[in-house]
Amino acid sequence: MTQPHEPDTGHAVPNSGRRLMLASILASYASSFIPWPLANAQTTTPATAAAPEAFLNVSRVITGRATLDSVQANRLYAGLVATVPSFVTQLNALAAFIAGNPSAAKQLQVSLDAANAPFAKLPRQIATAWYVGVVGAGPLARCVTYETSLMNVVVSDRLKPPSYAYGPYGSWGRNPLSAA
Questions:
Q1: How far apart are CA 41 and CA 38, in angstroms?
Q2: What is the C-alpha to C-alpha distance for residues 19 and 1, in angstroms, rounded to an integer?
Q3: What's a Pfam family in this record (predicted)?
Q4: What share of the chain is helix, strand, coil (3-state, %, to 5)?
Q5: pLDDT bracket for residue 26 (50, 70, 90)
Q6: Is 169 helix (H, G, I), strand (E, B) or coil?
Q7: Beta pairing class for 134-135 and 142-143
Q8: How many Cβ atoms from other residues are within 10 Å of residue 94's Cβ?
Q9: How many CB atoms lie under 10 A from the CB of residue 142?
């Protein structure tokens, strides 16, 4: 029954609370399609710039690989700049040391330790970043890559990085020795 002062149009009065909830659900759903770099554009820092050639050259010497993934290099460089104090200064000094001592490149860590270089820890940090995919240490440690880290890439012809079960659901529950 309708009130005498309200006209009966046959339409329900819109519920503003329900409309607000539907609009917020639609907005959150639509925002899930925004690419991560665009969504994170306000928080980007100059450290996310492309890795300099010095970083790539030093990385090639440390890893012993002639080619390295440039996208991964950019991410590792940004992570190292963010977590290692004075990384850029140490990197430039390390690059100068390698350029000035080409014979030392084969035994780089031994040469740095013998020279008592203040940047002697840097090759270990760069190697860890490339091979393990983690930059920084302790509470500052950040995982930058996993599947494409060199520890997984160099053995990818035989092994796959451990993740989930490789067989059907529950296959990890069977004892492989008792399976016939």
A1: 5
A2: 25
A3: FAD-SLDH
A4: 55, 0, 45
A5: confident
A6: coil
A7: antiparallel
A8: 24
A9: 15
